[in-house]
Amino acid sequence: MVNIAVLGYGTVGSGVVEVINTNHKSINKRAGDDIHIKYVLDLRDFPGDPVEDVLVHDYEVIANDPEVDIVVEVMGGIEPAYTFVKRALLSGKSVCTSNKALVAKHGPELMEIARERDINFLFEASCGGGIPIIRALNSSLTADEIDEITGILNGTTNYMLYKMSTEGCEFDTVLKEAQAKGYAEADPTADVEGYDACRKIAILSSLAYGRFLNYEDIYTEGIAKITPEDMEYAKELGMTIKLLATSRRVGDGSFYAMVAPFLLGQNSPLFSVNDVFNGVFVHGNVLGDAMFYGSGAGKLPTASAVVADVVDEAKHLHRNIMTNWSSHPLCLMDMKEVAGRFFVRVKGTTVDQVEAVFGKVEIVNLKQLPGEFAFITSHMKQGEYMDKISALGDSVLTMIRVKD
Ligand code: HSE
């Protein structure tokens, strides 16, 4: 028997218990052992819930029980999650977690402790919900030098942008819907401002490039400024707007990473990743293109990924599963050096004035928005764009990057 303790009986924690109970037989068969939930830790009581029988309020019960083999951390946040996880690993218990904030901040240290003790610290559910992208980067794409990861990594904002685009919904209304469906973080600012996607691309990039990308180094912009009018322009161009989290190797050993809304054309494999779905595009030097797609948030998809880690850890109770992630830092290039095309909406200026600054540009007019127009620049470094756009002063309404 493999005994597990689930820390947190919220959306994901209750999902983990549900998944283990629903698929008990097949999970045990795959693990080669009986997975038994010995404890669930939560400060709250759940009268009438079957979990009552194994509910504890004090972590000491779990920490001091040598029969607990695997700790499942699904509380979220840094503390007390970090203290509990570190303590579990130091006492020889494997840990799996859905907590991207914890992995992005303390991943290298926690992985090192697990490695030293021949146990495991796994975090499949921390990125892409139910999509097995971490396992793919760790175990499948090992023949490649990865040179790009671009993902729609936040289900809440993807759901919001999709509803804004297809139904013309208001920002606040769709945010409430996403929260009600259990997609959003406890504080949805993390979704809307791109912080959640930022931590996820930091984790994926660290695994893909084998060095630690500090999420604090990643340029991050959210979707709070995206309006229904921007969506109208996107439609006119045959494009859509998505919040992308991306990292790329440029030339020999330089990298950049960012999270920002992008205009995407129909030729992009991420164009049709709609609703709460996530998609991760990976380019490898020998593989070429690969796309991973699936349910990116919500109780059961996330729980499915957590339980897959439990199964993996049960199969490797005293053997560390290697990861290609060192504590050596991954340094990013200056954002001013990152090149791309820029979509800009302007009011109170003319095409001639714009072209005097940027040269020939692609112009977009919308009948329903008289008195303004938009243009798309040619390919240029961001530093050059910033110098040029300052010449247009207050006439600039919005800028959105274009995904090439
Ligand atoms: N709030 C996150 C999202 C949950 O919307 O993607 C899954 O990490």
Give a quick set of tags describing it.
404 residues; alpha/beta; Rossmann fold; Dihydrodipicolinate Reductase, domain 2; 3 domains; eleven-stranded mixed β-sheet; elongated; binds L-homoserine
Unreliable parts: none
Summed up, the helix count is 14
Into how many domains do the coordinates divide?
3
Overall 3D shape: elongated
Strand content: 15-25%
Q: CATH top level of the largest domain? A: Alpha Beta
End-to-end Cα distance: 52 Å
Estimate the helix proportion, in percent: 25-40%
Mind summarizing the main beta sheet?
11 strands, mixed
CATH fold-level name of the largest domain: Dihydrodipicolinate Reductase, domain 2
Radius of gyration: 23 Å
Estimated structural class: alpha/beta
The CATH superfamily of the largest domain is Dihydrodipicolinate Reductase, domain 2
Mean pLDDT: 96
CATH architectural name of the largest domain = 2-Layer Sandwich
